[in-house]
Amino acid sequence: ETRGGNTIESTVATMVVNSVHWFRKGLRLHDNPALQEALNGADTVRCVYILDPWFAGSANVGINRWRFLLESLEDLDTSLRKLNSRLFVVRGQPADVFPRLFKEWNVTRLTFEYDSEPYGKERDAAIIKMAQEYGVETLVRNTHTLYSPDRIIEMNNHSPPLTFKRFQAIVNRLELPRKPLPTITQEQMARCRTRILDNHDERYGVPSLEELGFKTFKGDSSHVWKGGETEALERLNKHLDRKAWVANFERPRINAQSLFASPTGLSPYLRFGCLSCRVFYYNLRDLYMKLRRHSSPPLSLFGQLLWREFFYTAATNNPNFDRMEGNPICVQIPWDHNPEALAKWAEGRTGFPWIDAIMTQLRQEGWIHHLARHAVACFLTRGDLWISWESGMKVFEELLLDADWSVNAGSWMWLSCSAFFQQFFHCYCPVGFGRRTDPSGDYIRRYIPKLKDYPNRYIYEPWNAPESVQKEANCIVGVDYPKPMINHAESSRLNIERMKQVYQQLSHYRGLSLLASVPTIQEEAEPPMSDDSYASSSTAGEARQSSIIILTGFTVQLSVFFALFLSVNQNVTTLPDLTKKSFTMPKKINA
Amino acid sequence: MFSRAHVPARHRLSIRIWQNFAAKQIRVFWDGMPFYVDEEAWNKMKRGRSKCQHFTPSEGRKKRHRSVPPAHVQTGSSASQRPTEETWGSLPHHVVLHIFQHLSLVDRARASSVCRRWNEVFHIPELWRRFEFELNQPATSYLRSTHPDLIQQIIKRHAQHLQYVSFKVDSCTESAEAACNILSQLVNCTIKTLGLISTARPSFMDVSQSHFVSALTVVFVNSKSLSSIKIDDTPVDDPSLKVLVANNSDTLKLLKMSSCPHVSPAGILCVADQCHGLRELALNYHLLSDELLLALSSEKHVHLEHLRIDVVSENPGQTQFHAIKKSSWDALIHHSPQVSIVMYFFLYEEEFEPFFCEETPVTHLYFGRAVSKDMLGRIGMNCPRLVELVVCANGLEPLDEELIRIAERCTSLTAIGLGECEVTCSGFMEFVKMCGGRLSQLSIMEEVLIPDNTYSIEQIHSEVSKHLGRIWFPDMMPTW
């Protein structure tokens, strides 16, 4: 009997379609195929965002990123209200929340946007499996990227392209990205109207920053970047208007103005999916063809979009993409471990106004120009401080609005010359680079007001200003503003040598780099190595090669010691299990 | 003799056998790592254990303590003599050695725990010629160190075998001090190459000079056949160089000592005067003198192959650099026509005054800081041997004229890299046309090229590719 009852219930259930659309990225109603699927023939639709308030306080994500997210959710909620619906912000973890929701709302269909990142794929696989157990159908659509990362990998002989050129060549062979879908309409929503409870705000409202444990001060949000789809679409229009007005599709050359947040900047909106990359792509394409008499646009027009795609593709099957150890594409570099220097960099206390201004802008506003990113990334890693790119990546992850796991890690590897076959001679000068970009120093004065009275001549190197000038500017270097933490000429000399050391050991890089190609008689003076760092270089492919250097160090030596020990004590009959010890990886940097 | 007690369960010979017919080599996997065996030796062994297709360690434990015959007896036909007992332990000595030479230290160590015979091979001096000591502190480096006990064992058992020794230290003073302590114990050695390498900040500079110098001179005095010494960024001084010369003048071929502030021009001159076999030298500009170039060009001296000069200003803006006479350069080139002269500049623009005013035979030039247009103009005029040019930064004016002049007059130029500079697309095209296919390295940041009426960035890519005869792109940086 009970069985029969269940069958009847489930038959009834199959006739009713109760959809849940799960928002993660893709915080928009326009061009949202997964949401369209949720609406398609459904009786009820609930739009859900799952947020863990306890996680929020402890996570390595800064207040600006949280504010941007909450604003984006508010905006979604507002837009849904206009369609007589609401956003359900559910507190908890997806794995705990869904079983409850499935039962409570009698869910039959779950839709969400495809997440190509390893962590996301793992989480989604678990949710899909769980949904299956509850008899819930799941529909997933890829819209965060223009192309499917898996497709590109397949076309590149089943491995991700490791140079941007190679990537572009493959994209060139692909058909155009799918056309974007229109925004959700009131009629669509009306067909699957969901009852909103009176206590909706209480249970499912968008939380405030305070509720997440952030202290906010009145006026502390200079608020250059307001989150949300509405803002994103307004910015897109301005962006295109400006392009149309300039009628020049070349990459704009950097000047002092480009360093400041622009009302036409789009990167955070692409990151959170407030703006669809396909909408951006097709708007840009249409504008180009309109102004250039229907000639088809070059790939370079979509540079900003393609870089994202490149890094998503490189990362999708590499769970260690965000670290050096165990990351087959990352060159192993013996970075220094120096928390004090890292803190100075992160907090903008390096004593180089150009670096400090950029880090201050990043902390205050959550966005910096890409050349400014190059400047601070180079300074932290291969240029000056010789600190691991992973540390820098974590700081960006906390502060940068548009930091996505793949794009952030990929860019850091790129800028620190840790992957993607980079020339490492381009080393940005923390004085000269800024001065070239903004000779007047207005940018420095804006973000480091202490230095505002310095004459232009010294504003990038205040330590060289005569004492009288320092006094007159009311800012004594070493008292009111830090002395430079490092001698750039000296450190860049040393670091270029270190990079050469590293690269000369990698046979597949030989001949690629300008500086490493200078020959020396050293190789001839020494016999072929049969030692740790070289042993497998002849047989190893690219992937294994880069992990060789890891295997040196204590663990290796330990087993050698045992071997030596054994030979001294010939009577030893039992040996410790060497394999286990030998393959313990060295401890992590920030363990 | 393949005792289970000695072999952890996981250490098994796998039966995956790769035959490389061309090389007459067979690759055997043991515990997942490849061994290479001569085909001949392999066949011998196979014949010996014809019953056993599966080369896991033999089940028989009975012969575990069988005495091992001396190595030279083994190389013959022992396999066919004792067909029932043949195992990996009776691989001829030279075969095991050959295999071991292809293995890393850790793999050798693990293999050496298989049986006593393999353990003997482990200690053959040939396998201990080269060693890299790694000295790091957990606070400053994520890299682990060579275990102190291993260091002691090497000093005790294998010091006399060491020939190619290097020390890698992190930025911590204690690491450099530990390296010095090891150096001072290398008394019974015949070291040929010695390298002191700082992987991060140069920590040897923080060691007390007397400690460093006394450790280094231990090696200089005891080894007597040093051919290559890399001691960049260390407090080596003139007296220690004298000791080096007194003991190793016949063998020294390579000396790298960039940024060693305690060496004087007289100190390095002493090396050049006595070490006539010196073929490669790296030093800072303040040690370079006319006398030094003449000493390196003396009749007794072999041809110099490589001279690297770092030009660094200690006190920015205050260092006055001396000039080198054209006649001294001429003497050097006359004596060593093939020599590469590599110069790394880390100067402020105003400090470039004394350089390249006359013809200079430099082949590789690296400018780590901004260099003026004027200076690049002089390079075009006065560096006819130039092969490689890297300019990290320049002012805001386009470098068209300077590049075109370099293309015109530096006819050996094959590699160029431009960082924060500007060149118009037309100027750059002109440069590429003039150099053509001989430009084997052309690394230009995308931002360097200023589009003009003639060329856009897109056109530049295809035009340059045409002239180089290969696909070329400017270097790009990710945009967010």
Automatic annotation (TrEMBL), chain A:
A Gene Ontology term for the protein's cellular component: cytoplasm
Protein name: Cryptochrome circadian regulator 2
SUPFAM superfamilies according to UniProt: Cryptochrome/photolyase FAD-binding domain (SSF48173), Cryptochrome/photolyase, N-terminal domain (SSF52425)
Pfam families in UniProt: DNA_photolyase, FAD_binding_7
Cofactor info, note text: Binds 1 FAD per subunit.
Superkingdom of the source species: Eukaryota
Molecular function terms from GO: DNA binding; FAD binding
Cofactor(s) needed by this chain: FAD
Protein family: Belongs to the DNA photolyase class-1 family.
Binding positions for FAD per the UniProt entry: 304-311, 402-404
The entry's keywords: Chromophore, FAD, Flavoprotein
BP term (GO), one: entrainment of circadian clock by photoperiod
Site (Electron transfer via tryptophanyl radical): 335, 389, 412
Domain Photolyase/cryptochrome alpha/beta: 17-146
Organism, as annotated: Cyprinus carpio
Any coiled-coil regions, as ranges: none
TrEMBL record, chain B:
Pathway the protein takes part in: Protein modification; protein ubiquitination
Keywords (A to Z) from UniProt: Biological rhythms, Cytoplasm, Leucine-rich repeat, Nucleus, Repeat, Ubl conjugation pathway
Annotated ranges, domain F-box: 85-131
Cellular component terms (Gene Ontology): mitochondrion; nucleus
Cell compartment(s), UniProt: Cytoplasm; Nucleus
Keyword check for NAD: no
GO biological process: regulation of circadian rhythm; rhythmic process
Domain of life of the native organism: Eukaryota
Region named Disordered: 48-86
InterPro entries in alphabetical order: F-box-like_dom_sf, F-box_dom, LRR_dom_sf
PANTHER family on file: ES1 PROTEIN HOMOLOG, MITOCHONDRIAL, F-BOX AND LEUCINE-RICH REPEAT PROTEIN 21, PSEUDOGENE
UniProt protein name: F-box and leucine-rich repeat protein 3, like
Organism encoding this protein: Cyprinus carpio (Common carp)
Lineage: Eukaryota, Metazoa, Chordata, Craniata, Vertebrata
